[in-house]
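Much of the work behind modern protein science is quiet bookkeeping, done one molecule at a time. The protein below has been through that process, and both of its lines are reproduced in full.


***
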Amino acid sequence: MKALLPAVFVLLLAACGGVKPVAVDFHLPALEGGAFADSYYRQGWEQLRQGDSEAAYRSFQNSMAPLDKKQAAFGYVFLARRKFSAASDQFALALEGNPGNVEAAMGRAMVLELEGRTADAFRAYGDLLIRVPSDAWVKLKYESIRSDATQAHLLAAEQARGRDKGAYLRELEQAAFYSPEMTAITLQIADHYDSEGDPDRALPRYEAVLEREPHNEAVLLKLAGLYEKKEKFDLALVTLDRLLAMKPGDPALEAEKKRIRDRFQELTLPEKFKRIFFKTEINREELAALIGFYFERDLELGGAPEILTDIDGSFAREQIIKTVTAGIMSARPDHSFQRFAAPDRAGFAVTLRALIGFLEAKGRRLRFTPAAAPVVAADLSPLHKDYEVISGLLNSQVLTLDAQGNFNPTQPVAPSEVIYALKRILNAVER
């Protein structure tokens, strides 16, 4: 393993049972202050830093720290001893008890890397970078794996070019996995699948390009056409609206939008649902309808449905019940849903985070690409009650800031923004 920067500590495994000490390179996170760090815990951390894993283990046993903190500490003890399986088990237990345990998440990422599971380690470091975007060590690890793996796969792709098209595409796909910001690679793959008449594979790749090049007119036009072919007229309309925002009043685009709108109106969907796509703001009923529409496959519930008192007559009654029962949206203590209330952007962020949590609880594996640099909203204080949720969604690129760098937490939400956020989450689900 490459020698790391000063943040990495070389720990020596204490001789035990005749086993020769082994040098181990890994990063021991700085111990943050807090109620959990009693004297035994701090002592154990320092002993671990000095290479005495046996003494550290005893200190952690005597500590009164919360269980997840102790499990994370034991994980580092086993990591120092190169007992990767035992370390992984401890980190997993810590994260099961407290998904927000950053030390355990760092340890898990290191185990994956040390075991040679490069893609899994890359995902783990990427998840960490979204949670702690200012952590220089996590950034270093993520970028190091990204750079090395991308170069290796591009070289393999070049070697396969002209002699094995399947291998060439697979290597390009892997390069794009590690470096999605290199949109030329993703665009080349998308164009290939489009030319082969495979819209199911072309679509998500064009969408991935658009996420990083939102004003790419050629990609927007391509997507509008593919959405129509797939009879996804809702997304075609939203895409045409984005084009019209770039070219207001363009007669060809206006005519195309009218044609697609007419086809959309022919669909056997509730009239009120169709109207969502022509509004400028969205209410809670419509938000539930869109979540239910795009995540219909995941919202099949097995338990007793939530009882709600004020949704009789709603066109989205079924979707409202499902989203509330799933914990994605919430009802008031009196069991009312308040379907006509308009969620603000902060509330919308909370709903998106709950949707992601619901999908993860169902066993869906989601992979978000962390922003290239930490995203900080100019108008959002760290004291805001939803600051961490909003920051996580910004740094995972599910939500974006406006041109002035503001999040506008109290502003209403446009249907187009809802649709694109839901599509980003859908595209993050690994199949």
